[in-house]
Amino acid sequence: DTADGEFEFTLAATDEAEIVAIDWGDQRTIPGTKRPYAEFILSVEVLPITAERAVWGLQSDRNSTLDSTTINAWFRLEASGALLVETDNDTTNTDDQSTGVTLVAGTKYRFVVDCRENGKVVFSIADYDGANARELKSITVAMISTTLQPVVALQKDSGTGVPSIFVDRIL
Asked: If we measure between CA atoms, which residue out of 70, 43, 73, 66 comes closest to residue 136?
């Protein structure tokens, strides 16, 4: 019941492994070699997340274990709300790079994964209204040669935490 709609991800309070995600069902139609650009407008409603993790960005085929996804360029959130970024091109795995940004619960942000500069992935964040835009991290990786799909995923291995993410838009 939100103007223009939102997709809400919420895990249950049941102590079990869970994942909720939105992607293209492994229909990868974004060529990594054509320098893709993806934008996500979303808010994390509950922080800190303790036994959970969330990612949003671009990936190859989905894997139920996020760390086993072999090709990705995404934002990652675990524990305190400190925002991380990571890339993997099936050869070089650059995990958990600090952005120096701690998200505020319930605040909408615009996140960008920009692969338009040859050989580089640039991550940036802005307030939802476009103010305070800043580049977070620039990671140089070999061009991703496979096709990709957008993803937003929230998962936990166990525990009773009930984090949630509201996805306003994926471009």
From this structure: 73
CA separation for the pair 157, 93 (Å, rounded): 22
Cα four-point dihedral sign 123, 125, 130, 134: negative
State the residue for tokens 């009930």.
162
Q: How far, in whole angstroms, is CA 145 from its chain's centroid? A: 20
Q: What is the DSSP string of 52-88?
A: EEEEEEEESS--SSGGG-SEEEEEEEETTSEEEEEEE
Instruction: Please provide the average confidence, as pLDDT, over all residues in the chain.
Output: 85
pLDDT in tens, 134-163: 777 777 776 667 899 999 999 888 888 787
Paired tokens of 87: 């890339």
Cβ distance 11 to 20 under 8 Å?
Answer: yes
Tell me how far apart the alpha carbons of residues 150 and 56 are, in angstroms, rounded to a whole number.
Answer: 8
Q: What is the DSSP letter of 132?
A: T
Supply φ then ψ for residue 160, to 5 degrees.
Answer: -115, 15
pLDDT per residue over 52-61, tens digit each?
A: 889 999 999 9
Percent of the chain surpassing pLDDT 90 = 27
Q: In what order do the strands lie in the sheet with 120-127?
A: 7-10, 164-170, 37-44, 109-114, 120-127, 134-140
